[in-house]
Structure formats: C-alpha cells, structure tokens
Write a structure and sequence with these properties.
0% strand, 9 helices, single chain, mainly alpha, 2 domains
Length: 150
Amino acid sequence: MGAVVAGGGVAALIEVLQEGPEDAKDNAAAALGEIAQHEEHVGAVVAGGGVAALIKVLQEDPKDAKDNVAFALANTAKHEEGVGAVVAGGGVAALTVLVVGPILQLLSFAQIAVKSAEQTMLVHCNFGFSKGINASLSRSLEQLRTSSLF
C-alpha cells in the first residue's frame, strides 16, 4: 500500500474519479477506500482532494460506484485526519441522501398501496361485501394512516 501512495497512485485514482469512465470510477473508489483504511495513508487521500472527488461521484454519477464511494468515505472518516474533511466537504449530507432516498421511495410505494386499498374498500362497501372484511380493511387503513410513516 505504501508503494502505491509513494508512487503517486492516489493522485491517479483521484483523476479517474474526476475524469475517468463510469466503470473505472467504481474501481478507483474501491482502491481509495482500501488506502484510506490505513491511518498512515489517509492523509494522502485528503491532501490530494480525494474527499471532494468522492463526494462529487456520490452526488452526480451512476449508482454503480456509490457503494464503493460510501466505503471510501467511511474509511476516510474513521481517522482524525479524515473526519473533518468528510464533514466539511458535505460527505455526511451526501451519504444521508444515499441512505434516505430508497426509504422515501418505499414510503411512496406504501402510500400508493394504501390508496389502492382505500379504493378496494369503497368498492366492497358499494357492492355490499362482507361487513367483517370492510371492518378489517377500515382498521388496517386507520393504523397505516396514524402510523409515523405517513
């Protein structure tokens, strides 16, 4: 690892993050994550602008690289020298969006399901289906409406 850092490997990896093809960005992020695991090398990632390049990929580039970018930022932030750079560079906010985005999408799907269930219940009520089924659907919908998810 030391030879890669001493030989300018960190700068080359950061350049790939900034200007390389999409599939290479994933590999570059993974390699920077491996380097950043080592306290003696995290300074090279920070000083070379690696944190800013990683955050930019996280915010702008395809989904494929995001796991390795998160890995690299997490490893950088494990060390005193790197945590300030990750926080100051907006890494926490970018990682939060990465985590919260899929949760919000699931909530949106859940809201669609609730609306569909409400419509189903109305059809059942209008056509005189079992009062037990209608009562059960009503209770379920009310529980969903009052949950902290909506």
